[in-house]
Amino acid sequence: MRVRSLMSTAVHSCTSEQTLAQAARLLWEYDVGAVPVVDAGGRPVAMITDRDICMAAYLRGAAIAEIDVASAMSTDLFTCHVDDPLSEAERTMMTRQVRRLPVVDDEGKLIAVLSLNDIVLARKTNAIGKVRAFLRGDVVETLAAISRHREGGEQAAE
C-alpha cells in the first residue's frame, strides 16, 4: 500500500513570514494540530504546531500577532513521497517521533499530509482491509514510539 491511499489532500499551509496568529487561525478553522510551512515554490520547509505557537508566546511574553512563524516553526522536517510505501512513512514517524508527514510530489511540492490519524481511522473503518494485519501491531508501536518522551524532557506529574 502506498502513501497516496491514505493521505489527506485537503492540506493547508502557511509561510514563514506570516504571524503565529495567522497560523493559529488555520489550525482552528481546519481542526488540525499542525500545518506545513512552505517556501515561495510551494515546497515544505518546516511545520508549525499549536504547541509551537503556545510556547513561542509564553517564552517571548508577546501576543501571537506580533511573532512570525519563522521564529517558532520546527525546521527539523521529515517528508514522504506520494508513492512511498505506507510502511516506510510509518517507520519515519516512529523513528523521528512525528505524527504528521508532509507529502510531496516529484518536484518536492506539498500536495498532502499523511497523519497517524489517517492511518488509525483507515484501520478503524476497515478502509484498508488488505493491510489489516500490517496495522494491528504497527500502529500501536508507532504511537508508542512517537509518544515516548524525548531525552531531557520531563514527564508531567500524574
What structural category arises from helix and sheet content? alpha+beta
Strand arrangement, major sheet: 3-4-5
Task: Provide the helix percentage.
Answer: 25-40%
Tell me the series of helices and strands, N- to C-terminal.
Answer: HEEHEHEEHH
Which keywords apply here?
158 residues; alpha+beta; three-stranded mixed β-sheet; two-stranded antiparallel sheet; disordered C terminus
What would your notes on this structure say?
The chain is globular. 37% of the residues lie in helices and 15% in strands. The strands form 2 sheets. The protein has a 3-stranded mixed sheet with strand order 3-4-5. The protein contains 5 helices and 5 strands; from the N terminus they run H-E-E-H-E-H-E-E-H-H. The model is unreliable at 153-158 (pLDDT under 50). A hairpin with a 5-residue loop joins strand 1 (34-38) and strand 2. It starts with 19 loop residues before the first helix and ends in an 11-residue tail after the last helix. Helix 3 (86-96) runs parallel beside helix 5 (132-147) and helix 4 (116-124) runs antiparallel to helix 5 (132-147). With 158 residues, it is α+β, with helices and mostly antiparallel strands.
